[in-house]
Amino acid sequence: MRITGLGVIEEACLEFSPAFTVVTGETGAGKSMLVTGLALLAGARADSGLQRAGAARGLVEGRFRPAPGHPHGRAALARAQEAGAQLDEGGLLAARSLTPDGRSRAYLGGQTVPAGVLGEVVGGLVAVHGQSDQLRLLRPAEQRSALDRFGGDRLLGLRERYAACFEELGALRRELAHLERSVQERTRAAELLRVGLAEVERVDPRPGEDAQVAGELSRLEHAEGLRAAALGAHEVLSGNDGGDDGPTALGLLGAARRQLGTARGHDRALDELADRVEDTALQLADAAADLAGYGTSIEADPGRLAQLQDRRSALTGLCRTHGCDVGGVLAWATDAATRLAGLDGDGPRIDELREREHRLVTDLALLAEELHGVRVAAGERFGAAVGAELRSLAMPHAQVRAEVSRREDPAGLPGGDGRWAYGATGCDEVDLLLVPHAGAPARPLARGASGGELSRVMLAVEVVFADSGAPPTLIFDEVDAGVGGRAAVEVGRRLARLARRHQVICVTHLPQVAAFADRHLRVVKAATGQITASGVELLDGEDRLRELSRMLAGMEDSASARAHAEELLAAAAAEGVGRAAA
Question: What is the C-alpha separation between 9 and 285, in angstroms, rounded?
């Protein structure tokens, strides 16, 4: 890992042991900033306050080489390649840069990626544990997740099946609620269509009936005027033909015909005019006869008039509601009947969803019951395993219990047993309880453990988790705070054993822990005026002895501290660890 312009660190380049590395140094030298750099690579939130004062930018770069067969490593490299990263001889380069305005950029394999993707990839390779992570483990949700990871593939597989069933049930109920709301809306729409269609059916209009009724109404409403006009015109055209009222049109045309008839045969042009007058007389005679017939046929019919007026009113009402004319009303009725048939089509789908909902509720309740049983069994194994570790960490009578209880809810699962509160991870609550010594009551970790006890419990938990799918690199930031004496030696021994299966990096103040490391790095601070710069040194041989002596006695040249440091290194070497001291 390479750090530039971060906190008190001007520039530092670190190469960690694939097994156990410790980082030591004076308080304020910047040891925890190394962990902060790794946390930034793992997707932690970037803060402008992390950048070194006066630096153009802060930069953290890391090169990861996960073991080829490690499942976390395979998944992380696959996700990185999916994001466009290029692998370098099986390794992965990751970087995070910070600017003074608080912005950051993330890189994977030379490709710019969102910080979330960087965190997703590196977070699958690295687990950072510090004082804040101890507090995180005190939360019930984190304790449940921790127990599930410890439960292994069976528990995690069962939880995935439960979660899939829970999600499917939720999606089904959302669809069902949407359909039921839609059915209510459709029912209202269908009722309006039925009312409209019933009105059309009651009136029963015929194509073109509105024009037909309007024409008949006009004749009946003006019957007297129409008859008077027709008979008056007939009188003018034919009358009595020469009566007291004067000549008629037909009489005058007859006189004209007779006058022209005396001159026929002498001029073709006049003969043609005479023919036209004769045709006109014939047409006028026909019109006069038709007028006489029309005039005598027109009769007032008050009953028929009232009937037609009612019909026109009914047709007008339909046209005003559904169309501009009877043709539009009939077209609306055809379309409404089609829509009404479509609105009545969701009933079978709702019935199908309700049957499926009942099956899913039953399945979910059964899965929750099975999940609860598997969690209880995992909790017993977990407590026994952590207790065994605590006995090796100078807590011989301590016990940790994973208490699995169900969340009660009077409402329960709708359609289910009506007892438990079902959530996305089941209906269980998990509480880690600590019995620190014989005869003490079991109490939650938050209230039952001192700082030193909590550190050892956390370490014991991590050792147990290491066998249940932990990431390949584990980083501990002063999790040994509050621990001393024999317990400190056991912490170092346990971290060394954990490093047989994982890469372990530990920031520590304890020489008992540092002595067990395969590689010892020291953060040193040099001050020039008001500018403080920190760097990193690899310690070996005499330098390591001097650092352990300083950590033991506060003095590098103390003979007793040096003898104690040699004793610690010898004890570590006897267990096959602390190889960097060789």
Answer: 125
Q: State the Cα–Cα distance between residues 503 and 496, nearest whole angstrom.
A: 10
Paired sense of beta strands 503-507 and 473-477, if any: parallel
User: Count of domains in the chain?
Assistant: 1
Provide the phi-psi class of 102: left if phi over 0, else alpha when psi is between -120 and 50, else beta: left
Between CA 346 and CA 379 the distance in angstroms is 48
Nearest CA to 61 out of 115, 3, 131 is that of: 3
Q: What is the distance in angstroms between the CA of the first residue and the CA of the last residue of the chain?
A: 25
Query: Does residue 115 lie within any of the structural domains?
Result: no
The residue range of the domain holding 265 is 209-324
Flag whether 194 is in a domain. no
Prediction pTM value: 0.60
Lowest mean pLDDT across 344-358, 406-420, 445-459, 541-555: 406-420
* Rounded distance between C-alpha atoms, residue 35 and residue 69, angstroms: 26
Structure tokens at 493: 């021994």
- pLDDT confidence bin for 370, thresholds 50/70/90: very high
DSSP 221-283: HTHHHHHHHHHHHHHHHTTTSSSTT---HHHHHHHHHHHHHTTTTS-HHHHHHHHHHHHHHHH
Question: Which single residue is written with the structure tokens 């379309």?
Answer: 335
Q: CA-to-CA distance for 225 and 222, rounded, in angstroms?
A: 5
Q: What length does the chain have?
A: 582
Give the Å distances, CA to CA, from 355 to 172, 364, 369, 414, 420.
11, 14, 22, 14, 22
- Tell me the one-letter amino acid at 427: C
Summarised one tens digit per residue, pLDDT across range 207-218 is 988 888 888 888
For residue 196, which of 328, 308, 309 has the smallest C-alpha distance? 328
1/35 Cα distance (integer angstroms): 11
> In the numeric block, which tokens belong to residue 346?
């969701």
For the residues 389-395, what does the mean pLDDT come to? 79
Q: Is residue 232 part of a domain?
A: yes
Burial label for 31, CB within 10 Å (0-12, 13-18, 19+), is: buried
DSSP state of 422: -
